[in-house]
Amino acid sequence: MPRRSIPSTTLLAQVRKYYGLDQQELADYLRISRPYVADIEAGRRSLTSKILLRLNPLALLPARPAGLK
User: How many CA atoms are closer than 13 Å to the CA of 16, on its beta-carbon side?
Assistant: First the structure.
């Protein structure tokens, strides 16, 4: 029986989900591979300062209007 995956709570995963991007789209934006994104979300790799700088414009998430989740 396959194990159920646990949703990632990493900054990368939160930003990706907030903007409705798939892993490949975010990987293209960050200029890294999709497996690298998957590894970061799974906690197998860490965000480097270079990737974090590229992610920064997206990570400054705008406030959502009241009543929206």
Answer: 22
* Burial of 37 per CB tally in 10 Å (0-12, 13-18, 19+): buried
Stated pTM of the model: 0.77
Q: What is the pLDDT of residues 31-45, one digit of tens each?
A: 999 999 999 999 999
d(CA 66, CA 42): 31
Look at residue 6 and give its three-state secondary structure. coil
Q: What is the Cα–Cα distance from 24 to 31, expressed in whole angstroms?
A: 10
Q: And the tokens for 22?
A: 């798939």
- DSSP letter at 43 equals T
- Highest CATH level, class, for 11-57: mainly alpha
